[in-house]
Write a structure and sequence with these properties.
Blueprint: E1 3-6, E2 21-24, E3 27-33, E4 36-37, E5 42-43, H1 48-65, E6 73-80, H2 86-96, E7 103-108, E8 118-125
Parallel strand pairs: 6-7
Antiparallel strand pairs: 1-2, 2-3, 3-8, 4-5, 6-8
Helix pairs in contact: 1-2
């Protein structure tokens, strides 16, 4: 099956050897996003809430570049340096997603790139 590389300047450019997303058939695999501001490639400042919002905004931009939206996400993986922020992720996520919600995992990790507090990746299924 052919692979299509998805790229947009509305999300941070890759900081490693990966693509923002890869589409195969109707499935799109969105790479992990951390709270980088696309225009400056600088981390969002402040507490965890603006970081979570920036990550969802970045994922949304890549989803749109692939021809979909966050409503098409079927699997979301959330990586948190502090699992104490789990409730805040749920609160903010409810502003970006509506039922039926995607399948999801929340994983506690020791560290993330650029000292981010949160990273998320996703799988999207297009009609």
């Amino acid at each position: 099956m052919a692979r299509e590389i998805i790229s947009t300047d509305k999300a941070p450019q890759a900081i490693g050897t990966y693509s923002q997303a890869v589409k195969t058939g109707n499935t799109v695999y969105l790479s992990g996003q951390i709270p980088l501001v696309p225009e400056t490639m600088e981390m969002v400042s402040g507490d965890i809430e603006p970081q979570i919002r920036r990550v969802f905004d970045n994922l949304s931009a890549v989803a749109e570049a692939a021809g979909g939206s966050l409503a098409d996400v079927v699997k979301l993986n959330i990586f948190l340096v502090d699992l104490g922020h789990f409730a805040k992720v749920n609160e903010v996520m409810a502003e970006y997603f509506s039922e039926p919600y995607p399948a999801r995992a929340a994983i506690g990790v020791a560290a993330l790139p650029k000292a981010a507090g949160v990273e998320m990746d996703a799988v999207m299924e297009l009609d």
